[in-house]
Amino acid sequence: MTMHDAANQLSGPSLGMHVGLRRGIDVGLRRALDIVCAGVAAFVLAPVMLIVTLAIWIESVRPILFSHLRLGQNGRPFRMYKFRKFRPDCDNHGCPLTVERDSRLTAIGRVLAASKLDELPQLWNVLRGDMSLVGPRPESLAFTDCFRNGFEKIHEHKPGLFGPCQAMFRHESKLYPPGVAAVEFYRQVLFPAKAEIDIAYFSRRTLVSDLGWILRGAWMIAAGSRIETALGDQSNETGK
User: Is residue 9 part of a domain?
Assistant: First the structure.
C-alpha cells in the first residue's frame, strides 16, 4: 500500500463525517429559523387571522379552516391547513386546483386567494415540523404519480410556504388556458416547469438565499394586493 492510498483511506471517513456534521448544523439552523420566524409571524399576524376568521364566519359560518392531505418530505403525507376559501358544501373530492373565476370561491375566498392570506394557518404546519418556511410547495396526493423521471428529488426537501416557484407562479390560477382541462395542463406543463426550478434551487440553497425568499414572499403578501388593485384602477381609467 502506498502512502497516497493510506492517506485516501484515512481522509475518506473524516471527509464523510465533516460533510455529515455540516449538513446536521445546516438542518438545525434552518429548523431554528423556522421556529423563530413562524412564532413571531403568528404573534404579529394574530389580529389579521382573527379578522379573517370573523369574515369567514359572518359570510358562511363554519368550517373556518380547510385541511387537506399533501405530500411532505420523503413523500410522507401530512395534513396541511388553510383558511377556507371555497363554499362549505364543497368537499375534498373536487378539482385539486384553483383556477381563475373558480365557481367554488366565496366572496371572502376570492380576497384570500388573491392576497394569499389563506396560507397563514400553515404557520402551524411550520411550527409542527411538517413544513419549512422555504421549500417546494406541497403537492396534492392527486399528483403523486408526477414525481418520477428525476422529479422525485423534490421529496428530499421539506415543503415550504415560500420559495422560487411560490413567487414565480403567484398567479398560477390565471395560467390555465380556456377549454383545456386544468389537471392535465398542470401535469404536462406547470408541474414539470416548477419541478425543474425547485430542483435547481434547492440543490444549492443556503440560509442566506432562503432568508431572501422569506423576505420577498412576505413583501409580496403584504404589498401585492395593493399593487394589483392600483394597476387595476389605472387600467380602468385608461379604458374610459
Answer: no
